[in-house]
Amino acid sequence: MAKTSKYLQVIEWVKNRIETGELSAGDKLESENELSTMFHISRQTARHGLDILVEEGLLERVQGSGTYVRDKSADSEEKSAELSKTVTIISTYVDGYIFPRILKSMVRALETYGYGARIMFTNNHVETERSLLIRLLEERSRDPLLVETVMSGLPNPNLKYYRRLRSRGIPILFFHSFYPELDMPHISMNDEQAGRIATEYLIAHGHKKIAGIFKSDDGQGQRRYMGFVKALLHADLPIPERNICWVDTQDMKKFERIYQKLSERLSGCTACVCYNDEVAHELTEYVLAKGIQVPEQMSIISIDNSELARLNAVPLTSVKNPMEALGAKAVESLMKLIEQPESEVSYEFPVELEERCSVAEPADNL
What we know:
The chain is α/β, with parallel strands linked by helices. The protein contains 14 helices and 14 strands. 44% of the residues lie in helices and 17% in strands. Helix 1 (2-19) packs across helix 3, helix 2 (32-39) packs across helix 3 and helix 6 (126-139) runs parallel beside helix 7 (159-167).
C-alpha cells in the first residue's frame, strides 16, 4: 500500500503543479532520481508515476533528454502534419507458416503506390507490442500503420496507445484479426465462415461426432469456434462441449503438453475441426503415433491451406486463407484511409475449401 500511495503522490503533485501554472507546456520535470529523493521512494516507483502521466497524455518523454509537460496545443498541428511515405508494418512472426507470404504481398503492393516499408515483430507478446507502440509515440512517427493483433481474444492493455496514435492523425489498419474494443478498420478472412464451412464439410460426409481444437487467446479461434457451433446447430447436432479442446500460444509451442487432454477430448469422435494447419499437423502426428488411421478412423480438416497442409503426412483438406490477396487488400485499404480518413474500409474475405485426402465417411457409414 505504501508503494501505491507514493506513486499516486507523484501523480497528484505533478498534476497540481500543471493546474496551478507552476508547470506549463514544454517545461522539463525533475529526473526520476530527483523524484525518488524528494519522495523517499525507489526510482522504479517514480518512473511508474511518470509512466501513468505519459499514458494520460499530460507528459511526454524525449529520448536522451528527459520528461516534459506535453504541449497539447501542438496536437492539432501534429495531426495535420504530412504523413511519411514509409508504412510501418507490425506483425507477430517473421518466419514460417503464412506470415512471409502476407508480408511480401504487402511490400510489393506498397512499392506500387510509391511507399517503403518498415517491419517490426512482436512475437505475439503483449509487452513487445507495448514497447513498439511507445517507441512510435516517442519518435513522433508519421508512418501509417498496418498491424497484426497480439492475442486478440484476451483483454489488451495496449489499446490506449493505438488511440493516442490515431489522435495524432496516424491511419491504422489491422490485418488478420482485430481488437473488438477499438473502432478501427481491419482486413481479414471471414473466420466464422471458415469454421462453419469446415464443419459443414464433415457433416456432409456423414460425421455426427465431431471434435474441435480451437485457439483460446486470439479472436480468430473464437470466431472459428462460433462457425463450428452454428454449423452443428443448423444440422440439429448437439454442441459437443466435452469434445472441445482449447489451446493457447504457449501450448502450440510445445504441443505434446496437451496430449492427455487430446486423448480425452477426441474420445468417441470420428472427425475433428482444427483451428489451423499447424494444429492439424500436430494432431495428425499424434493420432498416427497411437495407431489411429487418417482418414479411415479419424477425419481431420483445418484452416489456412498453407504449405503445411499439402506437406502433411496425410495431405489436409483445408479452408483457403487468401494470403497474398489479403496483403494487397490491406495496402489498398490503407491508401484509401490516408486519402479519406473517415472512409469505411473493413473487409472480410469469403472462404472456400481445398479438398485433399484427410476426410472420409466414418467407418460405420461405409
